[in-house]
Design brief:
By secondary structure, this protein is α/β, with parallel strands linked by helices. Helix content is 42%, strand content 16%. The strands form two sheets. The chain has a seven-stranded parallel β-sheet. Helix 10 (284-292) links the parallel strand 11 and strand 12 (296-299). Helix 1 (17-33) crosses helix 14 (353-376), helix 7 packs across helix 12 and helix 10 crosses helix 13. The longest helix is centred in the last third of the chain and has 24 residues, at 353-376. The two termini are 23 Å apart.
């Protein structure tokens, strides 16, 4: 089958959805090369007024469609006018067109597949911005019901899609991310640092992490430093101001966006990963940390318990003292931290991008069948 994937999320900073898009494309191409895939051609679509898509390495095997159209303008036309069809922009035909977000790509004949990473924008639009705030809450339900195929990244997101959008479970295919091909670290760092990794935005709940960490540093001097790694949004301004003042000044560092080739080294230097998010549809940093052998302390919310699978500590981030105690337990109890590390490595090994690609191909086949059935009725 001829497949087009919207690659725009991976054009500049490959965090979250961008990393998922990039790795899925690589896995589909790898399986095609090994004749394990029903995908006969893969086209990666991109649009931007100033950033061009240049692919090398294994991704060079894909066909590139790169248009000098501002992202916001194209999204407005696609989301609100459902025009122009992607075939017109690509000057080609496709059997499947795959959107990496909850809204459909306009297509003349291709089966349309959407990916739902999370639905936090429905319950908390205040934690979103730009097109996500403008379009997703009002359009997601209708687009999901019109989609020929729906990919979700976790069982939690599948349940939320059924509950909030009214889509039957059998219409969805779970295609969880795979673990990166990183070697586990050979030993835990001493002292290392506590690591938060993700975009600094409202739903990541960084304020609760700062509360818990402040509790620790006011009680003990030997607590490892806290590193915040990720691009700062406007939501992060109060947090950045806070870490510049006592008692956090000199104890907390903000690194900003971390390039893909630098991520493993960042994890390897961490004493533990902290993921305090209000909600995650999956939580890729948790999987990446476990792949390296880093213990994880995460909020008992969203898909995080599902991804950890008992390999880490789950906490209620609303309880400052409980949160701080969980961090301190991993810092002080080396035997327990080592056991968490081993459990995380075993858990991470169950997630592979080849499996993600195989499940995605199954979603494509089901979408084609649904498209054919609807066209015949």
């Amino acid at each position: 089958m001829r497949v087009l994937i919207d690659y725009r999320a991976a054009l500049r900073e490959r965090s979250g959805v961008g990393e998922y898009t990039h790795q899925l494309a690589l896995a589909l191409l790898r399986q095609r090369a090994e004749t394990h895939s029903s995908v006969t051609s893969l086209t990666l679509f991109s649009s931007s007024w100033k950033d061009r898509l240049h692919l090398d390495g294994p991704l060079a095997a894909a066909t590139v469609v790169d248009r000098a159209i501002p992202v916001r303008l194209l999204n407005l036309a696609w989301h609100r006018l459902e025009w122009p069809p992607v075939e017109r922009l690509a000057a080609a035909r496709f059997d499947v067109v795959h959107s990496m977000h909850p809204l459909l790509l306009p297509s003349r004949r291709g089966a349309r597949v959407i990916t739902i990473h999370d639905l936090n924008f429905l319950s908390h639009p205040d934690r979103t911005r730009a097109e996500i705030r403008r379009d997703y809450p009002s359009l997601a339900r209708a687009h999901a019901h019109r989609a020929d195929g729906i990919v979700v990244v976790s069982a939690f997101t599948a349940s939320e899609t059924e509950r909030l959008l009214g889509v039957p479970r059998e219409r969805m295919t779970i295609c969880s991310p795979g673990a990166p091909e990183w070697a586990p670290r050979t030993s835990a760092p001493d002292p290392g640092y506590l690591l938060f990794f993700g975009t600094l935005e409202a739903r990541k709940n960084v304020g609760a992490l700062l509360d818990a960490y402040e509790t620790l540093v006011t009680r003990r001097r030997d607590v490892p430093e806290l590193v915040l790694a990720g691009r700062a949004t406007d939501d992060a301004a109060p947090w950045l101001a806070r870490i510049a003042r006592a008692p956090l000044a000199g104890r907390v560092r903000h690194l900003g966006y971390v390039q893909a080739d630098q991520r493993r080294a960042l994890y390897a230097g961490a004493r533990l990963l902290v993921q305090p998010s209000f909600e995650e549809g999956f939580g890729l940093p948790v999987l990446e940390a476990m792949t390296v052998g880093v213990p994880v302390v995460a909020a008992n919310r969203g898909a995080l318990p599902e991804v950890l699978g008992g390999a880490g500590l789950l906490v209620e981030t609303t309880d400052r003292d409980e949160f701080a105690a969980a961090l301190l337990h991993v810092i002080d109890d080396q035997a327990h931290a080592a056991a968490m590390s081993a459990a995380g490595l075993a858990r991470a090994a169950t997630y592979t991008w080849d499996r993600t690609a195989a499940h995605t191909c199954r979603a494509y086949a089901q979408a084609l069948a649904r498209r054919a059935t609807d066209g015949a009725s």
